[in-house]
Amino acid sequence: MRHFGHIAPEVRQRLFHQQPCAFTGDSPARLLSAALGATLYSPATRPRLADDIVKQAANGVVSMVLCLEDSIGDEDVQEGEANLVRQFADLDARAGVDLPLLFIRVRHPEQIPDLVGRLGATVRLLSGFVFPKFTEERGIPFLEALAGAETASGRRLFGMPVLETPELMYRETRVEALEGIARAVDKYRERVLALRLGVTDFCSSYGLRRAPDMTAYDVQIIASVIADVVNMLGRADGTGFTVTGPVWEYFRVPERMFKPMLRHSPFLEGQAVELRERLIEHAMDGLLREISLDQANGLLGKTCIHPSHVLPVHALSVVSHEEFSDAQDILRPERGGGGVLRSAYTNKMNEVKPHRAWAERTMLRAEVFGVANEDVGFVELLAAGIPG
Fold this sequence. Notes:
TIM Barrel, 388 residues, 2 domains, alpha/beta, two-stranded antiparallel sheet, 16 helices, eight-stranded parallel sheet
């Protein structure tokens, strides 16, 4: 699979200075954690789940979570488990079909070995599990169960803890909770692919819900949690993990209080004006703003609960030609001693030592999402990737 692999090769050639790389579920963890992109959630009870997965993969989705937790009722868990076994068998029988990275979101640790055993040979289609409401105390049993299931199945399996408990929200317990989480994930570092933020649960601790005109960063109590999670768990010194962005809840906005957040100027050419109106109508201007703020705050990828959110996440994850040029200059071997240089675009200072971690992170993103041609922006990437 590859990002933007669903669009024609000649279109990709026009859009990209450097094409997104191909990868599989067996690729190195460092690459996969950056490549998750928009991770689309789906209830595990959907009767045509296998068809849905194949369809979404054909439309550019590269990672999905099949949920047995909050998205289904307590009374539907057993049927959801049985349905997953049936749907994996269906997928396994479809020779030559491209599939995304597949993860199962479980409720308790005991489900992990049970599901791996019931999946049998079709476990080769599974990339791992998502652990809800992760703390040190709750999380260790999930990680131990994952390690055991990996050994029993002979299949490399990753875990993605979701950080969403009240202990992380409350000031008096936040640092202790983050220190505990850090201990747990560090102990099982090779099995933790990414950390996911459960902002909806954070909001519920205070009876809050952000409007479509606002991002998670406009809700200050939520922004403070994101900042502390990145501070303690997302460092670029080798101790950190990939932290993914929070879910965007809206599909369509009947009425808005504030002006749209999308400027007119990037959409003035061709049919892009119509694209802008469609994005605004479906609350995508707020989503685009939040994705940009995710990246500015050290997050990569995003939890998504609607297929229409996938392309904006991927389009804004593509590295611009200017970013790529700066990163290349900073990482040149002859720059190893440091120093300051003017960017090739002659519009900024590149300071080699302080900007090195940014450049390394940018080059990894360039590898998985590609580098846009010099005259290509996110509008062209959005327009090219829309199905049909």
